[in-house]
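User: I'm writing a short report section on ligand binding and want a predicted complex to refer to. Could you take this sequence and zinc ion and write out the structure as tokens? A short remark afterwards would be nice.
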Amino acid sequence: MLEVERTSDEEKLIGMKELGGLKVKVTRDSYLNTSRGVINHRDLRGSREEEFVEWIPGVISARRIEIKRGEERIKTNTYVLTFDSPTPPSEVKAGYLPVKVRPYVPTPMRCFRCHRFGRGRDRCRMKEELCVRCGETGRRGDECKRNPRCVNCKGEHPASSKSCPKYMEEQAILRYRAQNGGTFGQARAAVIVEVAKEVRPKLYAQAVRGGPIRKVTAPVPTPKKSEIAPLALNSATRRTDYSKNKNKSEETRKPQTCGRYGADPEVDLESIDSIWSLPKNSCRAGRRTG
Ligand SMILES: [Zn+2]
Ligand SMILES: [Zn+2]
Ligand SMILES: [Zn+2]
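Assistant: Sure. The structure tokens for the complex follow:
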């Protein structure tokens, strides 16, 4: 897979017939080069889905959100637009009307047979269905009276719980991908890096203070200004002490506050509480061609 920044580079690549003496065929990856966004405006109540494709450059399809009330299906003035680009624009003009676009974040897909995330029942490799409540075979979730045990995180809740840390992790990854484009694997790696970045300063602060290191799960609140100053002072003092002991061996010169100083923070990635508030990074995804 190749990633390019400009449409003109993409066109050059697609026109390529040979690479290093080998015959090649270059195609545009439709999954990575499309994105979805949500628009909502009361003036769009009377619009038809096809009109968005006609009106807005880069929109390849539109779907109106409908809600069910009893037997009735009610049309809303919210639409999901599919764009011909790795990330959606922040605003579009629906005819004369400027409308804000929010990235469309899909609901995490859970298999109803094994309850793992990321694929549906039709692609499941599990022979027997697991109970959504206790995670065991031969039982049905709606009839099961056993204590709940989630198959994904082993927590005391059914696998369908929206407060499951695995569900929230999956949701954070889908949100990141909706905002930044790229593959699911790239989004997962980026979310884990964001969590580690949030967790690391807190662990460092604890080490300098000499306090015990405990497991920290995201989100970690940003420290107030009044909390930052004394920490900086402490670390400077420690550095002075450090230089006085130049002649000592490497081992004894290390700060003595904690045996785990400098070690990787103990990040419990299995129990990410909520990463809803990840900063919206500027889009780094270019057009991908594979
Ligand atoms: Zn499955
Ligand atoms: Zn059960
Ligand atoms: Zn769970």
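A remark for your report: The chain has four domains: 1-30, 34-104, 107-161, 164-234+256-282. The CA atoms of residues 114 and 125 lie 9 Å apart.
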